[in-house]
Amino acid sequence: MNEPVSEFTLTLEQVRDYELRLHFDKPELADLIVDEPPPLGHNAGPNPARLLAAAIASCLTASFIFCARKSRLETGTLRAEVRMQIVRNENKRLRVGRVKVTIDPALAPADLEKARRCREIFEDFCTVTQSIRQGIEVEIEVKGLG
Question: Interior CA angle at 20 toward 5 and 59, to 5°?
Fold first, then answer.
């Protein structure tokens, strides 16, 4: 494994039932409420799958914007949509089955040819998407239980 380039720690604190308050490691970032939809939770905030979808889409969008700016492309108001499918695996457990991200950079027709290079490379710079595609090592510790 490569040496870490950076590291951060987020903390979660139960508010009630499945509602959790997410504290970021930067004081300028507001806390975020995370919750499950009914029947488990109360929809007080996005659930983890929605946060994952948002992370994927925002990372890809930022990567495209970065490439467009480096290529001196004029974009309109860039919009992205992410569609996530939740499926059941062979053990009937819910899993993310598929994620589709559609980015609309509102490019001028004159910039379409220049933008093709960004289309070829921008995904490779998205930390979140490429990490998910490769699989991420997750280490779990439950205090007192090992």
Answer: 40
